[in-house]
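Hello Y.,

Per our agreement to keep a running log of every chain we model this quarter, I'm adding this entry. I've kept the format consistent with earlier entries: sequence first, then predicted structure.
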Amino acid sequence: TARSDSAADADGSDAGAGVASPSLPCDAPDGHVAHTKVKYAQSAAAPSAFFDYMQDGAKIRFQTTLAAAGSAEACQVIARACYMKFEEGLTKDQVLVFRAECYAQAKRGPAASMRPQKRKREEPEALDVSTQQVDDSDEDHAPLAA
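Predicted structure for the entry above:
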């Protein structure tokens, strides 16, 4: 793909650019400037993807973190999606809201709503013998001998 080495996934996986994972926003298409502007810093303390964006003459520093995104791939895809949101004209506050939604979806994972819910195991009902009537008559209905 047209992604730069600095934007390549730290774990070596290479998801198709422009293709959205069910739990991630749509990635920037191949050749998009976001693939060169977004850098990935694999630091021991806090791996993150970051970029600077010029908006109304001011430089905006923006980042996504591996800890919040859940994986290096998600971190980078979310950062590139945020870059494209700035290009659409969103403010930093609006992009921060978008990023939070992306983090939440990435943490839920693919098709979270499709996963079967764990059912609580139902315990069998206890037999309450105190309310049951007991038929203590013999089959021949003869009186009991005393």
